[in-house]
Each structure stands twice: as C-alpha cells, then as structure tokens.
C-alpha cells in the first residue's frame, strides 16, 4: 500500500486504481504456516476471498511455498466486507477442513479492521488468539506469546484454533525464480458460493465505504539546508526553543 | 428508548466512552461492562458518568478469553441496544470482533466520529495505514464500534447507577501460563514527551552511541523503524514505531535517517513537532515534517549535539 496517491483537488483516494497487493500481515501468516510444516509436517492451504484478481496473490503464495490454493469470488458480490469474508472462511473450513490451525494477519494494511480472525473463531466455536509474536507447536496444542499493552502473555491454546499474527513474528521468505515458474503452472481452484452453502444475498455488505479522504497534514515543511551543518544545527535549536519543545 | 452498551478492560477509559455514547442520543440509557476488578466504592463513583447499570467481570491479573468475554456481553445486552461501544484497547478490539461474529453485527475499529442514522450509523476512521480517513456507512443495528481515545471530555451526572458482578464461566481451550513484563526502555514510548527515532540511515550498531548522546541531551526516548528492530536487531521490538508497533504522540519527534514508509508514518503522525534529517531531499518523511534537514546525519547530529550542549552554557 505504498502507491496510494490522493487526488489533489478533492483529496479523495480512488481505491479501485490501487493495485491488489499481498497483504504484509498475511505474508507473515503464510511464512509461519510454512515454518510449522517444515518442523512437524502437514499441508498449507491458502484461501483468498474477493475479486478474481486475488488469483495473483494466490500465485505468489504458491511460489512462496503453499501446497494448494483456493479462491472465492462471485460476480454478484461486488464487495466482501469483513463479516462476509469471515462467513466464507468459516464455511470453507466446514467444507474442506477441519484444519488444525487457521492463520491470518492481525489486520489488513488497507483497511486494518482486525476482525476476520475472531469472527471466524466465533462462527466455528473455536478459541482464538490475536497479536501473536511467537508460536510453538506442542502436539495437540500451540504455545503462543501475545503482545498486549501491559505485557507479553504466554498462552497455551488447544487445537484447532484461529491465530492472527503480528508482523514481528517472522521475516517472510521471498520466492525464487524457479518457484515462481513452477507456481505459474499450478491450479488455483475457484470455490463457488453454492459449494459453501451460502448465497450472494447472505453476503451482502453490512458496512459500505462512502468515501476516503487524505488526512490533512498540517506540517510546515520548513527546509533547512545542512551544507553548513553547524549553522543548520544552531538554527534548528533556536527554532525548537521558540516552539517550547526543548 | 434506546440503550448503548459501553465496554472497556481499562477502568480509566470507560468514562469517555460513556460520555461520547450519551452525546449520541440525549437521555439514552447506558449500560457498561468492565473487564477489570474494581471495589464497590470506586465502582459506584464510576457510575456517576451516567451508567445505569455497571457490570463488572473482574479478573485480577489475567485476561478472559475473547470467547468468554463476548458471551458475558451478549448475556446482558438489552433488546433495544443501539450499539455496543468499546474503548480502544487491544483486548477490546478482539472481544468486539468476536461479539460481531456472535451477533452477526457490523463492527468497525478506531472510529473518530459516529453519527446515527435510521438503519445504522455513519462513522469516520483511519484507513490505508493512516494515509486515508474513510467515511463508512453501517447498515444494520445493533452495531459495534471501538472509539479512538480522547473523543470526549468525561462528564459526570448527579446520580449513581447500580452495580452487578458477573461470574465468567470456566475457560476451556486455552490458559495463560505467564505474563512477561515488557523490558527495555524505562519510559513507555506512548507516554514519551520527546523521541529520537532512527532508521536505515544509521550505518552500524556502534553509531547508536551518538544517537543515545543526542537523546540524553534532549531528555528523549529512543525509537526506531521496523528494520532496525526486526531485521537488524539493533534495538528491541519495544522500540519499534509504526502501524503494528508503537503509536506515539510526543511533543518532539526527531527522525534520523528514516525514509518515511507509510507504515512508519502511521505510528508517529500525531507527534506535535517533527524534525527529520535525511540525505535524500525527496524522502517521504519530509512531507510529514515541520523541520526538514537535508543533509548527512553523520555531519549534522554531532553539530546538533554541540548546539544543545552550548545551550546550557548560555
């Protein structure tokens, strides 16, 4: 999401023009899933919900190391809000699962609504843990470290469980040229809404974005040329004293 | 009549959430759920902010699971609930999302304003890593929101409400074994008055000595961008400022060798005065700065230190 440019005259941001990108937080979730597979075995399934362009994201996931990829998309559903995504994920779990772990990012970089994980857990009656910065498999449970304001909580959770991870949990690996080539030949399967016993009507949004504005930045942007560092430093200290911040 | 249900796990945040909810519908009934232990007298005082019934589910040092917390809220929710309004804490956000699943209700985080409509509400909130403010329409009631901090000045009423204690059922499926204290910096970054933050422009770990010297002179805490903490490990995760790190609002923020990626800006946007030092005059950090020092930080910082030391002599 580093290519967002608001329209100068209106301050509106046109989201449909910004390119679909793999959410940074979900990359951490995929990386963690691959690491778990490398340690204890298993299979990593990736699922994406949205426009057909999500296939690009899934191709990248396959090239990074996912075993299989599915997407849910339907021309009758123009936008999937968080409620709809959670509903689809929970139905997918019932159809293709059960899985031992549902991993996702703490929030999306774009919308950061941070709710799909706990919603899915509630719909499936599973435990959920969020803000996970460390994770260790322990047989039929998982030991996690969660980042709360008042400390790091070390919690043991029984599987199956929904876990959302923080960015600091790992450094996602990059695909190689060879893995990109082999991923491009693999199938990304479309799951029709009917297979998930849901309908476009059930997935109608309960939240709609009316418009998005660029926040007003009221910074003065006073340029200080530091070719002469000494002079620049004196000038800065004087200004900061005037502001009353030092 | 309609009711609002206000929820927090931090006692001090409940008054502002209650006051804001009351301002939405004059004369409305407000129930509150507090996930923190509080003795009777202080609880009674808390109800003076306009809480008709205060439900306390006190768990001393532990946090409830989001499943148990959402169940407790659902149990006390009256039929005429307009909205469930949460204070903005990490626990709240998780519980609110879980409650959203339980009630099949719309939920939006970090709302900066809420206007009720017949079928729901219109809210504004920060999106795109802090690069946009979205106006969003909620199309269903009851709905759930978390409010950003400081939306209203808490206002007391004359009368007190009733207090009820809730007993959470026993947790199943998870157990917290230990709570590790966050170490590192003595001052919490969120509360720091001045912050010196470093980014990739710092070439090696040893150079942080110079930064520490500057921070000491400014009476500032030290923060950093993600790569410095997560990739290089030169500073701890506790010092990482950004979208998923700390969100800070000091009086003075000095950014040294920070390019200004959107994720970082999201963490420091609310600073009062921002000074940035960067070699690249096109670095995005300058668009978010009050004082833009274009130059080599290795030449500028020693002079900055000198000028600050000279200040004391005068």
Question: What can you see in these coordinates?
Answer:
The complex is a heterodimer of chains A (246) and B (314). With 246 residues, chain A is an alpha/beta fold. Chain A has one domain (15-196): HUPs (Rossmann fold, 3-Layer(aba) Sandwich). Chain A has helices at 24-40, 54-64, 82-96, 116-124, 177-184, 229-243, and strands spanning 45-49, 68-72, 101-105, 128-138, 141-148, 151-158, 161-165, 188-190, 207-213, 222-225. In chain A, strand 4 (128-138) and strand 5 (141-148) form a beta hairpin. Chain B has 314 residues and is of the alpha/beta class. Chain B has helices spanning 14-24, 40-46, 66-76, 90-103, 208-218, 226-231, 262-268, 297-313, and strands at 3-8, 29-34, 53-56, 81-87, 107-116, 121-127, 132-138, 143-147, 162-165, 174-180, 194-198, 221-224, 252-256, 273-278, 291-294. Chain B has a 9-stranded mixed sheet. Chain B has a 5-stranded parallel sheet with strand order 12-11-13-14-15. In chain B, a hairpin with a 4-residue loop joins strand 5 and strand 6. Chains A and B meet through helix 3, helix 4, strand 4, strand 5 and strand 6 of A and helix 3, helix 4, strand 5, strand 6 and strand 7 of B.
Shape of chain B: elongated
How many strand units of chain A? 10
Q: Give the name of the CATH superfamily of the largest domain in chain B.
A: HUPs
Query: Could you spell the SSE succession of chain B in H and E letters?
Result: EHEHEHEHEEEEEEEHEHEHEEH
What's the mean pLDDT score of chain B?
A: 91
Q: Which two chains form the greatest contact, residue counts included?
A: A-B, 87 and 94 residues
How many helices of chain B?
8
Strand order in space, largest sheet of chain B: 7-6-5-8-4-1-2-3-9
CATH architecture of chain A: 3-Layer(aba) Sandwich
Number of individual domains of chain A: 1
**Mind telling me the C-alpha Rg of chain B?**
23 Å
Q: Describe the strand arrangement of the main beta sheet of chain A, using strand numbers.
A: 3-7-4-5-6
User: What's the mean pLDDT score of chain A?
Assistant: 87
Indicate the CATH topology of the largest domain in chain B.
Answer: Rossmann fold
How many individual domains of chain B?
Answer: 2
Largest sheet of chain B: 9 strands, mixed
Low-confidence stretches of chain A: 1-6, 13-19
Work out the radius of gyration of chain A: 22 Å
Helical residue percent band of chain B: 25-40%
Shape of chain A: globular
């Amino acid at each position: 999401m580093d290519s967002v440019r608001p329209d100068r005259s209106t301050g509106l941001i046109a989201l449909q023009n910004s390119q679909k990108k793999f959410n940074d937080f979900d990359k951490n979730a995929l990386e963690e899933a691959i690491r778990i597979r490398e340690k204890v075995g298993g299979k990593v399934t990736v699922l994406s919900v949205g426009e057909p362009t999500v296939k690009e994201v899934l191709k990248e996931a396959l090239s990074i190391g996912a075993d299989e990829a599915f997407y849910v998309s339907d021309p009758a559903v123009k936008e999937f809000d968080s409620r709809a995504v959670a509903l689809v994920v929970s139905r997918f779990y019932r159809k293709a699962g059960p899985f031992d772990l549902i991993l996702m990012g703490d929030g999306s970089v774009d919308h950061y609504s941070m709710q799909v994980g706990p919603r899915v857990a509630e719909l499936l009656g599973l435990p959920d843990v969020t803000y996970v910065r460390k994770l260790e498999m322990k047989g039929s449970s998982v030991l996690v470290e969660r980042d709360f304001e008042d400390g790091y909580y070390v919690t043991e959770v029984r599987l199956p469980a929904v876990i959302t991870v923080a960015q600091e949990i790992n450094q996602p690996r990059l695909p190689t040229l060879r893995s990109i080539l082999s991923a491009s030949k693999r199938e990304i399967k479309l799951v029709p809404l009917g297979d998930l016993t849901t309908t476009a009507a059930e997935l109608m949004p309960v939240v709609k974005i009316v418009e998005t504005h660029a926040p007003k930045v009221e910074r003065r942007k006073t340029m200080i040329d530091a070719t002469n560092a000494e002079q620049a430093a004196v000038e800065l200290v004087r200004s900061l004293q005037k502001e009353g911040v030092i | 009549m309609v009711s609002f249900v206000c929820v927090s796990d931090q006692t001090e945040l409940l008054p502002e959430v209650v006051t804001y909810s009351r301002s939405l519908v004059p004369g409305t009934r407000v129930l509150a759920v507090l996930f923190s232990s509080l003795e009777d007298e202080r609880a009674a005082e808390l109800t003076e902010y306009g809480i008709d019934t205060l439900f306390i589910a006190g768990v001393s040092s532990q946090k409830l699971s989001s499943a148990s917390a959402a169940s407790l809220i659902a149990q006390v929710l009256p039929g005429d609930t307009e909205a469930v309004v949460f204070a903005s804490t990490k626990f709240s956000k998780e519980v609110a999302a879980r409650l959203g699943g339980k009630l099949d209700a719309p939920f939006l985080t970090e709302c900066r304003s809420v206007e009720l409509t017949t079928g729901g509400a219109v809210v504004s909130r920060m999106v795109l890593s802090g690069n946009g403010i979205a106006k969003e329409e909620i199309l269903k009631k009851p709905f759930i929101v978390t409010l950003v901090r400081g939306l209203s000045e808490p206002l007391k009423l004359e009368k007190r409400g009733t207090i009820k204690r809730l007993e959470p059922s026993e947790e199943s499926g998870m157990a917290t074994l230990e709570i590790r204290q966050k170490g590192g910096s003595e001052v919490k970054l969120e509360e720091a008055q001045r912050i010196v933050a470093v980014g990739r422009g710092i070439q090696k770990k040893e150079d942080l000595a110079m930064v520490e010297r500057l921070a000491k002179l400014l009476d500032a805490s030290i923060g950093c961008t993600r790569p410095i903490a997560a990739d290089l490990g030169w500073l701890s995760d506790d010092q990482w400022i950004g979208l998923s790190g700390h969100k800070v609002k000091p009086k003075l923020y000095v950014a040294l060798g920070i390019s200004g990626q959107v994720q970082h800006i999201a963490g420091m946007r609310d600073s009062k005065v921002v000074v940035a030092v960067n070699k690249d005059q096109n670095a995005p950090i300058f668009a978010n700065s009050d004082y833009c020092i274009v130059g080599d930080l290795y030449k500028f910082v020693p002079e900055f230190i000198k000028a600050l030391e000279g200040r004391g002599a005068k």
